[in-house]
Amino acid sequence: MSYFEVVMFTLLVTCAYGVTDFTEESCETLPSEIHVTKEEFDELGRLQRTCNGDVAVNKCEGSCKSQVQPSVITPTGFLKECHCCRESYLRERVITLTHCYDPDGVRLTQEGYNSMDIKLREPSDCKCYKCGDFSR
């Protein structure tokens, strides 16, 4: 079978079975929860304390329109158009971890050591973008 015959057969199968049908985009910003652990070390590299907590954050989830179609122009014989659901904007938040322990695992209760503030970046909005496009 020649290259042209393969391309024509693929095109025929693609059209006959509706492979080019697009699914609806459903890229959403959804609430989620993660467990965060942060360690703090002194200037000599010794562990001073470990703080952790469960944090409510946003995540991007969903599907975007993508397609693969036969092409006589591209070297692979297929034109691929891929889109991915990811953040369109990140916001920075300060999170307070309230479960802090010394290196021996003893819970810290002294003011100033019993909690730790950390910065976290999370999606505030999600959209479909061309895969591999980081130029936003």
From TrEMBL:
Name of the protein: Partner of bursicon
Cellular compartments per GO CC: bursicon neuropeptide hormone complex
Biological process per Gene Ontology, one example term: G protein-coupled receptor signaling pathway
UniProt GO molecular function: G protein-coupled receptor binding; neuropeptide hormone activity
Record key words, sorted: Signal
InterPro entries assigned: Bursicon_suB
Signal peptide span: 1-18
Record's keyword annotation contains Signal: yes
Superkingdom to which the source organism belongs: Eukaryota
